[in-house]
Amino acid sequence: MTRATRATKKTWKLKTLIAASAGACLLAFQAPASAQAAWPDKPVTMVVPYSAGGPTDVVARMLAIPMGKSLGQPVIVENTVGAGGTIAPARVAKAAPNGYTILIHHMGMATAPALYKKLNYDPLKDFEYVGQVLDVPMTLLSRKDFPANNYQELLAYVKANKDKVTLANAGVGAVSQLCGLLFMNQIGVQLTTVPYKGAGPALNDLMGGQVDLLCDQTTQTAPVIKDGNRVKVFGVTTPQRLSSLPNIPTLDEQGLKGFDVRVWHGIYAPKGTPPAVIEKLNAALRAGLQDDMVKHRLAELSSEIVPVEKQTPESLRTHLTAEVAKWGKVIRAAGVQAD
Fold first, then answer.
1. What is the pTM of this model?
2. Measured CA distances, 45 to 26, 70, 262 (Å)
3. What is the rounded CA–CA span in Å between residue 250 and residue 124?
């Protein structure tokens, strides 16, 4: 074999290796794109930080069905309860960033950084944002046989009996705790607080007469209020009355000036979830919020779907950033912090 022939063979082998390497690289880049195009090919799990039957769980289960139809795969709601709603976000933050594990959370996502000394996730760094969902008003309730019959009587009674009155909440970091905290701060009275593992158990004990007061979301309380016999209601926490509960005055109009607490919800995915997957999740969310059953049910619960322009990843990111700053100041000023 001549020297020229050997050189030709070496050149041919080198070209073959280069071509093979290039092909392998191309396949490596094409595989994820192909996988993203096929996503989802199995059920998606939507993690809820609170107990079954609570307000966030109610919203999740309403959205799961139409979102599943849009995605072509079931959306399975899973309750991961504990530590004031911080276990679920930590779990989702550590999940594989493939879109099969997502989180629905309320404004507790913004309050956790100030409430907890040690947090196993960063709401602003460890997630991709899918979109905002809805705003939920709150109501201030008491057990049916509570001595007061209107807000002024309530105010007089709690000031005269502050050591006897109990105020329930759904646990440290829950919106009901924050609403109760703001209420006590604004009227200048500290009551005995009773934390529960979720809003459902707290409301059940209120109706059973085991606790006196509760401030909670209309997704939880509206059906009970409309029933008319199971609790007393002293006011709603929004500046305007609710169209679905028009006879209930606001706390603001009854003298608690500036009292405005509304609960917002958002959907998140682990950091690094591909943009194409986030886009599909967002499209499913928007389709879910247009579902007639969802709109009807949320209206019954006195909840407001956010405008279309807020149903975006960018809007949720901006809103969460502002809420972290806002509630951080409130919580630090009140000196409230959990271990």
1. 0.75
2. 32, 15, 27
3. 33
